[in-house]
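Aim 2 progress update. The chain analyzed this quarter is reproduced below.
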Amino acid sequence: MPEKLHKHFQWVGIGVYLLALLLVSVCFRTYAMKPLWMAWGVSTVLFYFLLTYCFHGRWKGDERKSFVKKVFWVAFSIRALFVGAMMFYFYYQTGISMEYGAADSLNYHFTASYLSDLVRKGQFREVFWVLNGNTMGFSDQGYLLYLTTLYTCFGKNILGPRLLKALMSAYLCVVIYKFASRSFGEKTGRLAAVMAVFMPQFIHYTSTYMKETEMVFLATLALERMDYLIRSKHYTFWNIAIPILLTALTFGFRTVLGMILIASFVLFLLCAEPGMISRKAKCIALMVVAAVVVFFLFTPIGWEMLIIVHLNFGESNALVEKYQQLGLNYAEYAQYKYTAPGAFVLPLTNLVEVANENQKMMNGTYFVKNYLAFFAMWSIVAAIREKKWRSFGLIGSYTLIYVMTIAFSFAFNSERYHLPALPGIIIMAAFAMTHFRKRDFVFYYGYNVVLLGAIVAWNYLKLAARGLFF
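Predicted structure tokens:
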């Protein structure tokens, strides 16, 4: 990272957030956030920017094995402590040790508890009846089966699964380092790893009972193993089987995610650098992928996948109609033709009191992604300029396809649906930072001005849509 960007990275980010918070709180003071939510936002932003800056400077000269150990253990310590602290915090706030509005989490917990009782009784047929009758299909069953297995083997408690989330999230930082350093060099890999260690989204979801941590871990590990398979040219049984298994498992968490992993691998093969993979191996791999996809489409899961794609992405007016039924103004703008240009940036941070508790609590977390979006987008320019665009064949195609898919879906404004793209955004942002040039700063500062205006405008729209603006 150039020294000037290194110095400005933390202070510009903190400054833009604090200025946005000040402007929104003053301009819309009647609906300004309560001090609790402001404290969450300010502490999150300071935590991320200051610690990323500090630890990157301290660790960048460490020997490789020492660096990996520090990344893992610091990440795990932060997440484990956060899990314990948040159980008490949520219990004090809500009366149960689960996040605000924990309807989905409670459903996962109670259903998995019931299923584990059935398993202990040997009533396996009833297990599948319950799964089929109480879920939205295969893409909603993987996490339930995972929890059921844990409850059956280790008892029904909510601390154990969260500590496993902390473990997965910590190792995710190591996976990001391996992936980024292999594809883009050691400097990019180390910066990406440190950014992942302190990434608020990764830390926050270890304290919830949602499936995002496991899903992001599986998807990122699948991508890293795909990358290793092609770049190492070690076509052993396990090197081939592991990415296939990991990709298959993602279908049990979110069907679309598995589809995107397959599409990204195909594009990776097509865009591979000369000499990375032989023409014969490329043809065989593409034929195998095509055969698997065709076979898959004729299974019950394949039909379910087509239905989900149609409902989530084919009905472009579904969200508009939902907002109109809620009586919100500007509902007609909740369409992909308006949201797609902001695919990397969305959702913008909420700084007014009208949002739900999770959105208010995570206002600083949202901002960190809004801020990093510039570098993720600028990495495309840097890759073309540095003639390294082929290196982005896997992570670039995965990230771009995913963020555009969400932008074209009903979930464009739901933060957790964007989470699987975050490892790719981190790696791409790290590449842009380590290949930043002096003349790039004009675009960097320009983006921050636009981001500040967009955040203020977004919070105005949230109030105006509800008829609350003065």
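The first helix runs from residue 3 to 27. The chain has a mean pLDDT of 86. These observations will guide the mutagenesis experiments scheduled for the next reporting period.
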